[in-house]
UniProtKB/TrEMBL annotation:
Region (Disordered): 1-21
Pfam families documented for this protein: Tn7_TnsA-like_N
Stored InterPro entries: TnsA_N, tRNA_endonuc-like_dom_sf
Protein name: TnsA endonuclease N-terminal domain-containing protein
Highest taxon of source: Bacteria
Length: 168
């Protein structure tokens, strides 16, 4: 007989987890990117994702014991680019078990190969160093394989679906 394994508290449509308002809304929900919501056990709420690579990152965050909680599109930052001031919204903010906060950008390798994207990430990285903010870029190489590989995606998904049960 199966039991409900959910450990959080849900109140109708609103969970009792951490409230979060994204810094940026999706401008155009149409297009080829798969957008959705993921029921996060760590956060006790639905987490929005834009793309399958971000969903892979969420599975990684959910299963990592070093990550206490995370949120999507946490803040909009302003960084210098030559004589211009530009806006940037990271994909995720992680709170590690050590208390450290890390901002994360999730990008496909094909996107990082573009000169304009490299320039933007270089400017953002320099700004983060100056402001002493931890920042990293996750790619398919970080995960080992992409969501395009069903064996990998299936194994990560199945780990997340079943919470750790202590052995008797």
């Amino acid at each position: 007989m199966s039991k409900n394994l959910w450990q959080g508290t849900w109140r109708g449509r609103q969970p009792a987890g951490n409230a979060h308002k994204r810094a940026r809304k999706v401008i155009s929900p149409s297009g080829g990117i798969v957008r959705g919501k993921f029921p996060s056990r760590k956060n006790g709420r639905m987490v929005h994702h834009e793309g399958l690579l971000e969903l892979d990152a969420i599975y990684l965050f959910e299963t990592s014991p070093n990550i206490v909680k995370y949120c999507e599109q946490p803040v909009t930052l302003h960084y210098p680019d030559g004589d211009r001031l530009r806006r940037y919204t990271p994909d995720f903010e992680l709170v590690l078990a050590t208390g450290e906060i890390v901002l994360v950008e999730v990008k496909p390798v094909s996107s990082i190969e573009h000169r304009d994207v490299q320039h933007k990430l270089d400017c953002v990285t320099k700004h983060m160093r100056r402001s002493e903010t931890a920042f990293t870029v996750l790619t398919v190489k970080t995960f080992g394989k992409s969501h395009a590989y069903p064996i990998y995606a299936g194994s990560i998904t199945s780990v997340s679906e079943f919470p750790h049960r202590p052995t008797p």
